[in-house]
Amino acid sequence: MTNLHPHAPLRVALVGLGTVGGGVIRLLQTNGNLIARRAGRTIQVAAISARDRNKDRGVDLSPYEWVDDMTTLAAREDIDVVVELIGGADGPALTLARQCLAAGKPFVTANKAMLAHHGLDLAALAEKTGIALKYEAAVAGGIPVIKGLREGAAANEISRVYGILNGTCNYILTTMEKEGRGFDDVLKEAQELGYAEADPGFDIDGVDAAHKLTILASLAFGTELDFGNVAVTGIRDVIAADIAEAAALGYRIRLVGVAENGPDGLFQRVHPMLVPTDHPLAHVDGSLNAVVAEGNFVGRLFFQGRGAGEGPTASAVVADLIDVARDEYGDAFAMPVAALSPQKPADAGQRIGRSYLRFKVQDRPGVLAEIAAATRDAGVSIESMIQRGANQQDGVLMAIVTHAGEERCICETLDRLAGSDSLLGTPMVMHILD
Ligand SMILES: NC(=O)c1ccc[n+]([C@@H]2O[C@H](COP(=O)([O-])OP(=O)(O)OC[C@H]3O[C@@H](n4cnc5c(N)ncnc54)[C@H](O)[C@@H]3O)[C@@H](O)[C@H]2O)c1
Ligand SMILES: N[C@@H](CCO)C(=O)O
Ligand code: NA
């Protein structure tokens, strides 16, 4: 009989056995035979490591060797690849990555925080030892967007990449929108479903999406990773009334990461945006993510799928292991590190677009005129306006949508209104996706 798997098994050390690590074990146990046919060899978990050996993870770990000290893995000749699923930009994950890559041990990770901060150094180490650094799970979970950009769209000049990059925020915003539930309640549910980061502040403050955007921008544009210049606003200040006003105006609110590379530099921003209901991103719900990339030959690419959770993320990790098993890999960021270009950050103030401004104001004569005067003096033209509530002690809500104009004029409007006792609380600004 023909031996379908003539090659030796790929021996994997799995570090971190939480949501994603547990999922990788379950996936390999379930689909192992099919994967072996596709990879040309068996992918075999040989060793596992995590913080707590005795925790019940709902999966049989008895076949695998337990390793207390993960720092021994890089030097082990009976391990072919190390998978890091513990998380954290620095600390043990980074130490492990450096050790493995320096020792020439292929390394697979889902850790976007580490890559956003240290991706260039790690890619340089991998390049030096000529081995794989793979991270499909780090961006948009199960969506093969790293492969999509690194391989499928590699022939294109890409001018813009944007999308919904955080499953937790998308789950919160869309569940609030559909079910009218409160923020904290839905966040708790997202955590229970395994979507959130160990510190969910990374999700709701937009930092996780910014980590992912940094990686996407580098891949899309061939530029160095530049996390420090991503402007980040999360979803903490989005209130139910914003979702309702946006709906009344024909929009849905989504946390969107946008990166553009142009003559003025590299623009990178993560922020809640108003998305027109006829835009595909407005229909990306729950833990789904979506990434749009615009290439000069391929046109608009739209990737959509589950961005978080055990199954989709494990699917991406194992796809990377299959690449390692097939010896299919190249430069982590699609070109040698030395070929990536440094880029100056673009000035957001000159960006042209429409915006949504929401104020909570005193319900008294002259307030509307005061806001209108501030917009007039800052050169902002109003397209529509809604005021809700009347004679309310704690103020009324005023929502404005502007015509397209320079963003710096919006900032100037807010500066002009700063300190006014007509305003109750900080105004909310969200830009509109066109
Ligand atoms: N959960 C998701 O949907 C998802 C999606 C994509 C990427 N990720 C990324 O995957 C990684 C893991 O996420 P998760 O959701 O599985 O996390 P988790 O908190 O569920 O699991 C983390 C695991 O790492 C172990 N660990 C943590 N610190 C350790 C240490 N110092 N030493 C040894 N073990 C340690 C824990 O014991 C646990 O087994 C993170 O980088 C995360 O950002 C998660
Ligand atoms: N916490 C992340 C996991 C996927 O990277 C999210 O909610 O999208
Ligand atoms: Na992915």
UniProtKB/TrEMBL annotation:
<protein>
    <recommendedName>
        <fullName>Homoserine dehydrogenase</fullName>
        <ecNumber>1.1.1.3</ecNumber>
    </recommendedName>
</protein>
<dbReference type="InterPro" id="IPR045865">
    <property type="entry name" value="ACT-like_dom_sf"/>
</dbReference>
<feature type="active site" description="Proton donor">
    <location>
        <position position="212"/>
    </location>
</feature>
<dbReference type="GO" id="GO:0009088">
    <property type="term" value="P:threonine biosynthetic process"/>
</dbReference>
<dbReference type="Pfam" id="PF01842">
    <property type="entry name" value="ACT"/>
</dbReference>
<comment type="similarity">
    <text>Belongs to the homoserine dehydrogenase family.</text>
</comment>
<feature type="binding site">
    <location>
        <position position="112"/>
    </location>
    <ligand>
        <name>NADPH</name>
    </ligand>
</feature>
<feature type="binding site">
    <location>
        <begin position="15"/>
        <end position="22"/>
    </location>
    <ligand>
        <name>NADP(+)</name>
    </ligand>
</feature>
<keyword id="KW-0486">Methionine biosynthesis</keyword>
<keyword id="KW-0521">NADP</keyword>
<feature type="binding site">
    <location>
        <position position="197"/>
    </location>
    <ligand>
        <name>L-homoserine</name>
    </ligand>
</feature>
<dbReference type="GO" id="GO:0004412">
    <property type="term" value="F:homoserine dehydrogenase activity"/>
</dbReference>
<keyword id="KW-0791">Threonine biosynthesis</keyword>
<comment type="pathway">
    <text>Amino-acid biosynthesis; L-methionine biosynthesis via de novo pathway; L-homoserine from L-aspartate: step 3/3.</text>
</comment>
<dbReference type="InterPro" id="IPR036291">
    <property type="entry name" value="NAD(P)-bd_dom_sf"/>
</dbReference>
<dbReference type="InterPro" id="IPR001342">
    <property type="entry name" value="HDH_cat"/>
</dbReference>
<dbReference type="InterPro" id="IPR016204">
    <property type="entry name" value="HDH"/>
</dbReference>
<dbReference type="InterPro" id="IPR002912">
    <property type="entry name" value="ACT_dom"/>
</dbReference>
<dbReference type="GO" id="GO:0009086">
    <property type="term" value="P:methionine biosynthetic process"/>
</dbReference>
<keyword id="KW-0028">Amino-acid biosynthesis</keyword>
<dbReference type="InterPro" id="IPR005106">
    <property type="entry name" value="Asp/hSer_DH_NAD-bd"/>
</dbReference>
<dbReference type="Pfam" id="PF00742">
    <property type="entry name" value="Homoserine_dh"/>
</dbReference>
<feature type="domain" description="ACT">
    <location>
        <begin position="356"/>
        <end position="428"/>
    </location>
</feature>
<dbReference type="GO" id="GO:0050661">
    <property type="term" value="F:NADP binding"/>
</dbReference>
<comment type="pathway">
    <text>Amino-acid biosynthesis; L-threonine biosynthesis; L-threonine from L-aspartate: step 3/5.</text>
</comment>
<dbReference type="Pfam" id="PF03447">
    <property type="entry name" value="NAD_binding_3"/>
</dbReference>
<dbReference type="InterPro" id="IPR019811">
    <property type="entry name" value="HDH_CS"/>
</dbReference>
<keyword id="KW-0560">Oxidoreductase</keyword>
